[in-house]
Amino acid sequence: MAKHVAERKLTKFSTLNETAERILQRAGRTYYIRTILCRIMLWMKLRMEMDSLWIRLRRMPRGFWFILLFGVGGALLFLHIEILSEMFLQQGPGMSSPQQSKEGLQAAEANPVSPMQHPNVEESKQKATTVSQEQDIGTPQITKRQRKLLKTSPQITHSKNVSLTSLPSFSAEGSRSNLSSILEARKQVMKNMCAKYKSGISRTITPDHVKYIYVEEKYKVLYCEVPKSGCSNWKRTLIVLSGKASNPDSLNHEQVHYGGYLKTLNRFNQKEIMHRLQTYKKFMFVREPLDRVVSAYRDKFENPNDYYHNLFGKPIISKYRVAPSAEALKTGNGVTFKEFVQYLLDGHRPVGMDIHWEQMNKLCHPCLIDYDLIGKFENMGEESNFLLRMIGAPDSLKLPSFKDRNPKDVRTSKEITERYFSQVSLMERQRAYDFYYMDYLMFNYSKPFNDLY
Fold it and tell me: How far apart are CA 68 and CA 74, in angstroms?
């Protein structure tokens, strides 16, 4: 029936087409009439082509339609499975369902210890150490269930009067062994993520890969610098280990970073680089990614800093602020946190990235370099002592805990990070989490906010 209807329409359109052509010939050079008739003819031809196509499709065998529908259904099912897999992954490895309790996701390492407190700095009310968060893992092969335990094991609460520098020492062999197992488990989690997401990277190590690794020759140590994760105090300690200073507390910020006491690994030739990577002890310390971002913003933009205000503040204000004042454009002072986040997430940034907020895995390349220890800023006191004893440093040497830049500022904590990110939209919080997602995976940090997917 449909076939006959379509054929009648084609006959009708053919007749109309012939009629239109005759009228067109009679119209001669009358411009407007010719234009209208041309449009009518074009529309009729288009309708004829569509009806002809529909007739051909209707004549296709039923098997063709079955295969087409089956293919579309399979594609939709595949996309649905992919979306579910991504939801499981973002909820955290080891989760049994997307509806898992949000409290479990936020436990442990998403509630970091306020690190390296100076005795005069106000202590946090309650602190959970990375050791307590990871003590349920005792073997290097991490299963999904073990990784869940790694994030959700019970917290240990410390007295208000106890600083991180007075955490238990390693006089007991059991404590040392327990922390050693936890650190090994942490490395294995990172290796698993590298195998899953970075398996295709080149295995060739270039000087660019090691430009942030500092060399201490006496104790044969390589330290990868992650700014806002205790790097100044680690450099002080390495300078003391090298014998170029007697006391880490005597070195100021300028001496530590610009005094030339330490060499970076990229200053050696390729053979010397590989020799040190293969024979020296290698370590890095990481920090909860969004805590680190907030700490960097507070340090570089809320305090006087001509370098960062000129290099970053001016272009950020110019691009992201509506009707900026002449003073702001001239000085670069007063960048808001929202403007900073807009810059961070912009694929066409007006100025490049900076080491203080670059992703940690891009600074130290842990998928390419096999670090002997990956420490966490949230448990700096205990894990730094473990490392110093591991490399044979003098028992009297401890990692300093003071804050040499803006010492009056309260250290960035989970609560402070939440306060700053409340100034941006949910979409911007989500995109910031996505931006540092690989750091969250590799270094086993939980989602920072409950409303993220």
Answer: 10
What is the per-residue DSSP string for 245-311? -S-GGG--HHHHHHS--SEEGGGS-HHHHHHHHHHSEEEEEE--HHHHHHHHHHHHHSS--HHHIII
Whether 119 and 163 have beta carbons less than 8 Å apart is answered as: yes
**Which residues, in sequence order, are CB contacts of 119 under 8 Å at separation 6+?**
163
CA distances from 326 to 43, 305, 311, 333, 376 (A): 58, 19, 17, 11, 43
Q: What are the beta bridge partners of residue 10?
A: none
Decide: 130 and 184 in contact? Cβ < 8 Å: no
Query: For residue 12, is pLDDT > 70?
Result: no
Question: Phi and psi of 264, rounded to 5°?
Answer: -90, 155
Q: Provide the percentage of residues in the chain whose pLDDT is more than 90.
A: 52
- Rounded Cα gap, residues 154 and 151, in angstroms: 9
Q: Which residues pair with 263 in a beta bridge?
A: 215
pTM over cut 0.85 = no
Look at strands 221-224 and 263-264 and give their pairing: unpaired
CA 410, CA 144: separation in Å to the nearest integer? 37
Q: Are 127 and 157 in contact (CB under 8 A)?
A: yes
